[in-house]
């Protein structure tokens, strides 16, 4: 009579990595919806392209590495990476941008380091930075919100632009981006940065049409969408609270100090929070467990460092947004942070009590 | 500042780090009464059921024992006796599978019950206050009580602590899912448990007694509160339900807010903890004189028809209990001893219940489909989510421990405090990658323990080696010292004027005289010998005949010298005559000439030598004219020829015994010839015929001549002649070698 031998504990929370990943993917839906609402089909097309490329890349590398394909291919981690990459690309970037980025993220950043759990960098952000540095033109052609466009862009137009570079009517990306008044529109962060070099104050920059009433037409809602998704994840305990909280607080404090010192040359705290990739970074990128710090203390340090870096790069760096760079720099420092934030083990270092 | 007691009375408790809330599943058994004990057909009683040493078995096979009779006694404090759970016969004492994660076997006493359940004589003691503390301790020790919560620490060691005790904590937390044994015991026997607590109070005189119990045991709490209502310094502390609050260190932290320093017993903080079941056993032992022979076991799980708590005799096979509860036969049977978090799988159902067994779990396949079993492992890579670190009650970093354990980095494991892991399983429970973390830690711990043992062994060996070295050194010094002293003593004695000293002196003088005489003789000998003969020849002759009697040595030397002289002359004479013949047809000639003459072994040897020489010459001669390749051919041809010759020789004239010897000689000769051929081949290119001839012939002729003389000598002289032949051979070789050398240099 065969008895089943197993090691304790014998019961287990029915909780799997794949379900965790799925939950995070679901949580991006509000943000993606806002993106679609304000910027059209571009990002959805890029997300699907990236996901397809990621699955193919993952399948290829896994079979080359002689790994079990089905469980690892559908653990959701590759799909999540692709979704995050697709979200962060400019809506009208050519199709090969997302394909190259996705393949780079999966094959090089993730699998070459040993696959899930072994990559020192966040694959989506590493791919984003690679694309930004390799294809600066395509990666900075941000599409303005639909409401500000001179022409109406439909799904077919977007598809045509992404795959051929021109709409069926023959407009190029550059022409699409041009305002009725004849000037090219950029993202709110870009606008503020450019205006600063032109000698305009922040208050004057806020008059720009891309910024609208608050912090940027569309962008504020996208960030709000990701914030909502993030709060959902927090409520499900899928992500730890420490990283986003410390990141947002750190960004808030830094921008607040800067704003207090010089309100004319520094954007407000809420502008920092609700433009660019702040909320996406806070809840979806920095909380990537693989490339982040592991202890609570470590995560607080990790988030705070990311917030500081985002502010510094936005303020002083050459690029308008900074989340990707900040995340990569933090990824590098994560092992060190872990090393110095080990919790005190029960019964150790009791100090005077001992 | 608010005191601990005030805080507890207010109902506020400290918290330990982490912890989890697995499904409790206690409803399966918590409302059914404890079933009474039944006697199985056979009891398997392991001799060691606790932490510490096993006792000495006091019974032998065939003995009839009474219920409660002692089976093994204890001679050290860390050993605990065992008792017969019922009356019957000892049928065997053998190695059986014990309830242990390893599934290993250990010595067990097999008791076949007689069914009568006859008690030994007991002395009921209604008032334990009439006993002295030592008597109570003795009773506890003799009753074989060890901690019944899980670890099985000998109770009398714990309660005989000399430390001043502030808190006696009674552990009724029972945080593991499924288990309700302590719960039921409290519900049904709280007065007895209270008696046990009172005995402990009497022994330890703690300031406060805290009973820690999780809030999910409402009936037990009310029973306890009722029982302790009129006792002031006993507090029933109802703590929040969270696994593993029943861990000793965790419960201490919850109740007192203190952490037990790593590697230290709680008694150093003035805290002693006892399980409720242990309290019950103490009361039973002290008051009713009943040793620990039965306990409450929760038999639970959805594979059972009637999960319930059962009074089980120690030694009852698990299968007997599961049958009692209606175990459904399924394909994949899985029995767990202990709870689902810390219990271990059983290899079969004949494993006995022991003093620490609080639960037998028979889960259905859906209920606990262990993700960590070898067959259905769904383990994937760690994604560093850190959930394990969040739930770890010891505040360890399970994911970092895992990496170090996988890398076998023992130094890092020690740095991460692996040995503070209590193996509660919380980390593995929450792990989304389904990594059996605890299993990795167990393996790593075992490896470290193994390594430590090896280190200790190596250290001991080193010490031993060093000690030996020192001893040898000492002995050497002592020996030198002793010799020195002896010499001094001798000197001193000789210098004195006694008769003994004189005799000793004369003995020394005698010895000196003898040496002198010898020396004189030697010089005389040299004078008589011819001036031309070198001392080396003499030396050889002497060394060749060491067995010869001393008085004969002179004539022997003379003989040798004469022989050497004769050889030299013969050399000169025959060198010119025979050199050509030997070179061309040496082999056949020597064998045909020698064959008729040969009668004895010696002659055979000589033939061989001659042959060898011929062989030696032949290839040499050939090499001179031929290329190296052709030379090799010639050698290979020459060898078979020689063998044929030898064979005919032996067949015709020699006996079988001789044949053998001859063959050996031939082999030696062949080997020699080969070696020579090789050197010759090397030389071939430079050596001219003229120069090679004189160099080889003297040796050859020498041997021929020697063999002739030897053959003509009488039988009594054979031995000598043989020796001479050997000497001659050696000389010939030397000559050949030197001549070869000279030719090369030329």
Walk me through what this model shows.
The complex is a heterodimer of chains A (354) and B (746). Chain A is mainly α and 354 residues long. Chain A has two domains: 18-185, no CATH class; 188-214 and 222-341, no CATH class. Chain A has helices spanning 17-27, 29-39, 42-64, 69-73, 77-88, 95-110, 123-134, 136-139, 155-164, 173-177, 188-197, 202-205, 219-235, 242-261, 269-274, 278-285, 296-316, 323-340. Chain A is globular. Chain A starts with 16 loop residues before the first helix and ends in a 14-residue tail after the last helix. The mean pLDDT of chain A is 86. Chain B is of the alpha/beta class and 746 residues long. Among the domains of chain B are: 370-485, Fumarate Reductase Iron-sulfur Protein, Chain B, domain 2, CATH 1.10.1060; 535-745, no CATH class. Chain B has 21 helices and 16 strands. Chain B has helices at residues 4-9, 133-142, 155-159, 181-204, 218-228, 248-256, 276-288, 318-324, 387-391, 398-407, 410-415, 426-430, 437-495, 499-528, 535-544, 553-597, 601-625, 628-653, 656-684, 689-712, 718-745, and strands at residues 43-46, 56-57, 64-65, 70-73, 82-83, 88-97, 105-113, 167-171, 208-214, 234-239, 271-275, 294-300, 308-313, 336-337, 344-345, 359-361. A five-stranded mixed beta sheet of chain B has the order 13-12-16-14-15, with helices on both faces. In chain B, strands 1-7-6-3 form a four-stranded antiparallel beta sheet, with no helix packed on it. Chain B is elongated. Chain B starts with a helix and ends with a helix. Chains A and B meet through α1 of A and β15, α12 and α13 of B.
